[in-house]
Amino acid sequence: MTDHDEVAVVGAGLAGCLLACFLARRGHRVTLYERRPDPRGGQAERGRSINLALSERGLDALRRIGLDKQVMADALPMRGRAIHPVSGPLDFQPYSSDGERAINSISRGALNNALLDAAESAAGVRVVFDHRLTGLDPRTGDMTFQTPAGEVSARAAVVLGADGAGSAVRGQLLAHAGLRESLDFLDYGYKEVTIPPRDGQFALDPGALHIWPRGTSMIIALPNPDRSFTCTLFWPTGGTGSFASLSSPTAIERHFRAHYPDLLDLAPGLVEDYQRNPVGLLGTVHCSPWQSGGRVALIGDAAHAIVPFYGQGANCAFEDVVELDRCLEETGGSWTAALPRYEERRRDNTEAIARMALANFVEMRDKVASPVFRLGKKVEHALERALPGRYVSRYELVSFSTVPYAEVQRRVRRQHQVLGGAVAGVGALLAGAIGTAVMRGRRRR
Ligand code: FAD
């Protein structure tokens, strides 16, 4: 049995490291347990996204611990989407009405390492690698870990599960504390391929998130600081027209030549990447409750993993940390009061972003290619300019603000109702005016 911890955070990923930093600021003694070896200086884990889009919610959390500037130093701002049709020119669609606001492509590994450094150097934080949680008694805080040296035990007054979508802490709450869960897997998976630099430069515009929308499938590409792009292919996992249907190099090349003709030239190693890289699974985790007895709680993907199509999973996990910190502040540091309050405040919001992320998949893989969608975006941006602060698009509210996700959904619904009413009103006025003109014309005749 190791020392008695005040707080154990399980999982030194994005949420766990940030959480340790916030708790250290409040004066807690924290042990951060991570199943992997220390990732600093090592290779990125295969099968996880290499880069991710960081936006305002994530930045807001990083600002609070003074890490935003360091993280943003290597970020590549993407001000819109560049749509690649099967043939014809690229179409750039700005994210904001002024064309200036950007989401930021950053290296997941670099972000995790920066957060690990920050956690490790914070007073009162101890980081323990090669410790995979395998057992937990939620009533006592007794934990069991698998380590290279065998099984070890530890105990903590509070245990926080930041151990990702397949959370072992959630599994223990399921087994011992009445938690219920549902895992909604998408019938789509993802695979990463690389566009290397061309003559030392980016092969595509690094100021955009590139999308190849193809209806039932799509590829996106985000730039990396080494001037490569990481492309992620989203495709069904089974059946015809799926990852399962392509295996030979000839079939892979034929498929990409037909559907993504420009990509084969941009990514000369595409066929090898396709054959070598694994297919990752995608899904949404719903579970309840997130906490047990004010002693054990879940945070980030462990509580509510979502599909990646709004680029919000990590941003949302960071918001969880900010909210938990706020609840501890408001309750004078009482875990038994703070943990239920944190769950109550976050649940509606995480459910809202889970829904919006699923809806955005259809938008990205299909709608962005349509002229009607393009026109709609132009009208939306014109409205934002005409009614500043009063009409704000869903994308802007999600990506460039910290308005709670559930409020974003309500506000967008209200905006659409008002707009629908206004359009109907203008329609009625026009119909009335046309009717009067017709009557006058008839009387004159
Ligand atoms: P994780 O990052 O999964 O960290 C969990 C940690 O716990 C890991 O270090 C793991 O090793 C450790 N662990 C697991 N089990 C145990 C155990 N039993 N004992 C001890 N340690 C354990 N989000 C965005 O905001 N923007 C994006 O653009 C974006 N793109 C994405 C693209 C893809 C393809 C995918 C799959 C996800 C994307 N996400 C994105 C989502 C984002 O990656 C997650 O939401 C985020 O990583 C969640 O952070 P977390 O700390 O909760 O979990």
Automatic annotation (TrEMBL):
Pathway: Cofactor biosynthesis; NAD(+) biosynthesis; quinolinate from L-kynurenine: step 1/3. The keyword Ribonucleoprotein does not apply. The chain crosses the membrane at residues 418-439. Its EC number is 1.14.13.9. Residues 6-355 form the FAD-binding domain. InterPro entries: FAD-bd, FAD/NAD-bd_sf, Kynurenine_monooxygenase. GO terms for molecular function: FAD binding; kynurenine 3-monooxygenase activity. GO terms for biological process: anthranilate metabolic process; kynurenine metabolic process; L-tryptophan catabolic process; NAD+ biosynthetic process; quinolinate biosynthetic process. Keywords: FAD, Flavoprotein, Membrane, Monooxygenase, NADP, Oxidoreductase, Pyridine nucleotide biosynthesis, Transmembrane, Transmembrane helix. It catalyses: L-kynurenine + NADPH + O2 + H(+) = 3-hydroxy-L-kynurenine + NADP(+) + H2O. PANTHER family: KYNURENINE 3-MONOOXYGENASE. Belongs to the aromatic-ring hydroxylase family. KMO subfamily. This is Kynurenine 3-monooxygenase. It comes from Thermocatellispora tengchongensis. The gene is kmo.
